[in-house]
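Check my protein:
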Amino acid sequence: MSRASADTLFAALQDVVGDRVSCVETDIESHSGDHSAYKPVRPDVVCYPESAADVVAIARCCQRMETPLVAYGAGSSLEGHVLPVRGGVSLDMQRMNRVVRVDVEDADCTVQAGVRRKQLNTELEGTGLFFPVDPGADATLGGMAATRASGTSSVRYGTMRDNVIALQVVLADGRLIETGSRARKSASGYDLTRLFVGSEGTLGVITEVTLRLYPVPSHFVAAVAAFSTLAEAVAVVVQVRRAGLPIARIELLDALMMRGINTYAGMSYPEAPTLFMEFSGGEEEVRRQREWVERRVWAGGGTSFTWASDAEERAALWHARHNAHYAAKGLRPGARSKGTDVCVPLSKLTECLARVEQDMAGTFLMAPLVGHVGDGNFHLQYLIDPAKPEEVAESERLHERLVRHALELGGTCSGEHGVGLGKTRFMQAEHGEALGVLQAIKEALDPQGLLNPGKMLPPRG
């Protein structure tokens, strides 16, 4: 967009939302990227709505001026979701940060889209309830809904798909709609809530989210188990899942990632394939879980096993896990981390990891692995120097192979990160004829293609 056009856009938005629009350089710069490896792209202006009415006014202005509108939460996405690749408006939702209501009796709540997950759980203290979906980053709940986020606790509590009850959404033409109700089930109409959860801001802007809450467990205990091979570790995970054990978290880290964790967090775990686990519930339930799992670990080739029941110890363990992104980057200081993920049926996880190990044995790149393996989901972080074309090309080659392995084994190109910019090229291979249906939905709800353009779907043709 030319400077004159940007000035016209700024003036038009100022007319509808006043000082909640900015073209200050620091604002533009801070909204030009996320945690992905993609180069920053500058928006023309940044808007800071404080209500759904603000979002409606901004959307109508953008439609009138045929200007792209890209919702921005915490900027913690990993696939370029919030990059304004065609300029326009970056819509920063973080001032919409009010917890609208909490209903203890019904165990649900409604929040504005800019409320962060840690903020919500802080406000829930004393109610006996909590919100469990934990992607690691302190993301906004609107962003988590838009990207269908999951994380370490989803093996027990499910993903955002399972925990969003209803939404308030502003469409591309400025219409404000409500999807779903607070009823625990419904057989009424199309499931619009599920349509917008995971739509990555391409179908509408989420302004409110109604969420399912859960009782806070009375007891917690964590464990760390090392193995000689990834296959041995996965075999224990499969046993846990087949037994129906309600384990709270079960994470896999390879030897390279454990080296990074030890260095980053000042720990001294064995540099070997490792499971991080957490058990929660009543005291007797937790005791039975830990005894059952410990027996399976030792019988399954475990080489070390330690418990962490103290709250401080558990917090340190999960802090280390949640900072795996930064721990991985520390393995090659100055490198850029190009992260990705796939998800496969649990029965195919061992085969998929074996294929990945073979690929990594034949490359010069470092790529530590971490996974929410109770769901069959794992991540690789390719550590590259973006200034070296051979490293960029090699990371792309490995990424293509990773996704091909997952699709061949009945999986998906992303279990958690989402599609964003980086995975649109895989959508045809994964969805086949259904891709046309996805494109038809996009065209019906956003005929001008203004909402987060360039994301999720490849262009037609």
